[in-house]
Specification:
By secondary structure, the chain is α+β, with helices and mostly antiparallel strands. The protein has four domains: about 60 residues, Arc Repressor Mutant, subunit A, CATH 1.10.10.10; about 50 residues; about 80 residues, SH3 type barrels; about 90 residues. It contains eleven helices and eleven strands. Strand 4 and strand 5 form a beta hairpin. Helix 2 crosses helix 3, helix 4 packs antiparallel against helix 5 and helix 4 packs across helix 6. The termini are far apart.
C-alpha cells in the first residue's frame, strides 16, 4: 500500500471512531512510527485531527468533518465481491436475498474501467465451500437471540441423543459448509459447539438461577475433564483431520509422509473421537490413550463380525 492509499485508509478508519496508533499500525501492517508520521502529514494537509491520551484515548476527527463519497479501486472491489461470492456457496445464510442484491449493486456502480479489470479476475477466483443439501431455518432466529444476549431452549438432534437443551448462544459462525453456534450449555454444564441445522423448536428462556448453569462459570466451576490424544497420520489422514476446526491446528509433521495429531479433548466428546479414528481406518494410528485404541479396535471387530455373518 502506497502512502496516499494509507492516508486515505487512516481517514476512513477515523470516520468509524477513535483509533490508536498501535491499532492502525497493526491493521495497515506498518510501524507505529510510520502512523505517527502519517498523522502529522494529515494535520499539515488541514485535516481536523484531535488526540486523547490514556488507555481509552486515541486519534479522532473533529465533529462535523466527513469525507466525500469514495470510489472503490479494482483491488477493493475484487476483495468485496470475492467475499460475497463465498457467501453464495452456502445453501443458507442470515441474508439469503441480500447477498445477491448487494453484489448486483456493487457491480452496477463500478466505473467501466474498474469493472473490466475486476470481472476477469473474479472469474478465476473461487471459494471452495462444501454444499450440504440442507437449509438452516432457525439461523436468523438464533442470530437474534445471540445478539440480544438471550438464553434459548432448543431441541437438539446429536449423533447420540435427541433432547431439549438450555443454551446461552455466544457466537454464530460458518465453517466447512456448515453453520455452528458456540454456546454455553446449562444442560451439560460447559461451553460447547452445536450444529445449527440440528436445532429445532427454539424459544427464549429466562437465565438459570445463580449457582447453576451460567452462574457456575463465575463461581469457580472447574474446567471440563479432558483426555490427551496422540495419533500418527498418513498424508491422506492429515488432509482429512486438518479440516476439523478444533484438531486441525494441532497437527505437526514428524517425518517424511508422517504427521502427528496431539491434542486434549473434553471427555464428553469421547464418542466423537472413537468415530473419527474409526472412520480414518489405516490413515491413522492412535498412540494414546490405550482405551481409545481398544474402542476403535472393538468397533472394527464388530463390523468385521457383522460382515462375516452376513456372508455366511
Amino acid at each position: 500500500m502506497n502512502r496516499m492509499d494509507r492516508l486515505m485508509a487512516i481517514l476512513i478508519a477515523l470516520q468509524q471512531g477513535n483509533q490508536t496508533a498501535a491499532g492502525l499500525a497493526a491493521k495497515l501492517e506498518v510501524s507505529r512510527r510510520t502512523i505517527l508520521r502519517d498523522m502529522q502529514a494529515l494535520s499539515e494537509m488541514g485535516i481536523p485531527l484531535a488526540a486523547v491520551s490514556g488507555p481509552q484515548g486515541g486519534y479522532y476527527l473533529m465533529e462535523g468533518y466527513q469525507l466525500p463519497p469514495l470510489q472503490l479501486n479494482s483491488r477493493e472491489a475484487l476483495c468485496l465481491l470475492f467475499a460475497l461470492e463465498g457467501l453464495t456457496r452456502y445453501a443458507d445464510t442470515p441474508f439469503n436475498s441480500e447477498r445477491w442484491t448487494v453484489m448486483d449493486k456493487i457491480k452496477a456502480i463500478l466505473p467501466r474501467e474498474t469493472a473490466e479489470t475486476v470481472h476477469p479476475m473474479l472469474d478465476r477466483l473461487e471459494v471452495e465451500v462444501p454444499k450440504p443439501k440442507y437449509t438452516v431455518p432457525h439461523l436468523n432466529e438464533l442470530l437474534d437471540y445471540a445478539s440480544s444476549n438471550q438464553w434459548v431452549s432448543v431441541f437438539y438432534h446429536s449423533m447420540n441423543n435427541r433432547r431439549r437443551l438450555l443454551i446461552h448462544p455466544l457466537r454464530i459462525y460458518a465453517a466447512n459448509g456448515f453453520w455452528y453456534c458456540d454456546a454455553y450449555s446449562q444442560t451439560h454444564g460447559e461451553q460447547r459447539i452445536f450444529r445449527i441445522d440440528r436445532m429445532t423448536e427454539l424459544r427464549p428462556e429466562d437465565p438459570p438461577e445463580v449457582g447453576e448453569g451460567d452462574g457456575d462459570r463465575h463461581q469457580g466451576k472447574s474446567e471440563p475433564q479432558t483426555v490427551h490424544i496422540r495419533a500418527k497420520l498418513t498424508y491422506r489422514g492429515m488432509l482429512q483431520v486438518e479440516r476439523d476446526e478444533h484438531v486441525g491446528e494441532k497437527i505437526s509433521a514428524v517425518g517424511n509422509e508422517e504427521w502427528l495429531a496431539d491434542f486434549h479433548l473434553p471427555v464428553s466428546e469421547w464418542h466423537w473421537a472413537v468415530q473419527l479414528f474409526y472412520a480414518l481406518g489405516t490413515e491413522a494410528e492412535v498412540l494414546e490413550p490405550e482405551a481409545l485404541r481398544r474402542e476403535v479396535c472393538a468397533k472394527a471387530v464388530r463390523l468385521l463380525t457383522a460382515y462375516e455373518q452376513d456372508h455366511t
